[in-house]
Amino acid sequence: MSLDWIYYAISWILLAWHSAWEAIGIPDATVLGTNWAWILAIVFLVVTVRVILFPVFVKQIKSQRAMQALQPQVKALQEKHKGDRETLQKEMMELYRKEKANPLMGCLPMFLQIPVFLGLFHVLRRLNPDPAKNNKDIYGWTVDQFNSASDATLFTAPIASKFGSTAAELAQLGANGTVVKIMAGVLVLVMMGTTYLTSRQMILKTGWAEDPQQRMIQRLMLYGIPLSLLISGAIFPIGVIIYWVTNNLFTLGQQQWVLRKFPPPVTATSKPATTAAARNGAQPAKNRGLFGRSKPAEAPPAPAAPKVAGPKPGAKPTNPKKSRPAKRQG
């Protein structure tokens, strides 16, 4: 199956934003070793994709809420079918089908962005300022646009270069190997950190799932994917890493907004989460911030002063002196 339609779509969005930034006065020339028109074009490629995928993100949140609401029934099935994993899986799949909940819906937005990521990876990998390079004008590019993007840099590191670029590739791009490794290394670490934080943010707010399959997916998202980026990040062009980091920052802000506006429901299983989560090797959601720091508990309100009943309408005023006991005479 040809992926040319993806390459054309990504190129069209990228070139449209680059032309827009040039039109409003951002120069195509280098400022502080950076071609900002191309960097902003990549950043707003993320914005465009995320706006298009926003309805899918809303469905993801709704699916996660449905899965959380099913936790009491999932726990009951686990107790009922202890030791019979095959029957448990069948019962759980039937429950999800009946309630129209999809355990994999939480990963759907990420899966839908994979074609965009691959398309940008392919487009940027082609960049090369060599005048003898062929096919510069495919995917809707002009030769001038291709040459301009090939020369684009982030603090003097070409956006088409990567941490694992060979000496020949660096020579073609006219890049300094040390600068490229430093910039790519820093960006890979930022990419890993922001990927971890996006998963941690959601788990801290919704808690660890009771379902072993869901919990496995949560652990994969939290630890597996960031660690895999330490190796795979070496083959990503710097422009692709910029896309990934921007996408993570967008996700952090979007999730924070959604979780504040639509907080997760409090279920029966979320109250005694300490014992259930400890038995399953998971940790319950805690009142912590994004970086795991405990938030100070709110001070309880001060007790209100007791109200003193006033005299009834029409009652005679009482004399407090008469109510006192008489002093004894010596």
What's the helix and strand layout?
Layout: H1 4-23, H2 36-52, H3 54-69, H4 71-80, H5 85-99, H6 108-125, H7 143-150, E1 153-154, E2 157-158, H8 167-173, H9 177-206, H10 212-232, H11 238-261, H12 273-279
Antiparallel strand pairs: 1-2
Helix pairs in contact: 1-2, 1-6, 2-11, 4-5, 6-11, 9-10, 9-11
Helix content percent band: 55-70%
Model regions low in confidence, pLDDT < 50 over at least 5 residues: 268-287
Intertermini distance = 116 Å
N-to-C SSE string, H for helix and E for strand: HHHHHHHEEHHHHH
| Overall residue-averaged pLDDT value | 80
| Gyration radius, in Å | 30 Å
Number of strands: 2
Overall geometry: elongated
List the total number of helices. Answer: 12
Strand order of the largest sheet: 1-2
Q: Approximately what portion of the residues adopt beta-strand conformation?
A: under 5%
The profile of the biggest β sheet is: 2 strands, antiparallel
Category by helix and strand content:
mainly alpha
Explain what this protein looks like in three dimensions:
- The protein has 330 residues and is mainly alpha-helical.
- The chain is 58% helix and 1% strand.
- The protein is built from twelve helices and two strands.
- Helix 9 packs antiparallel against helix 10.
- It starts with a helix and ends in a 51-residue tail after the last helix.
Features:
330 residues; elongated
Outline of the structure:
This protein has 330 residues and is mainly alpha-helical.
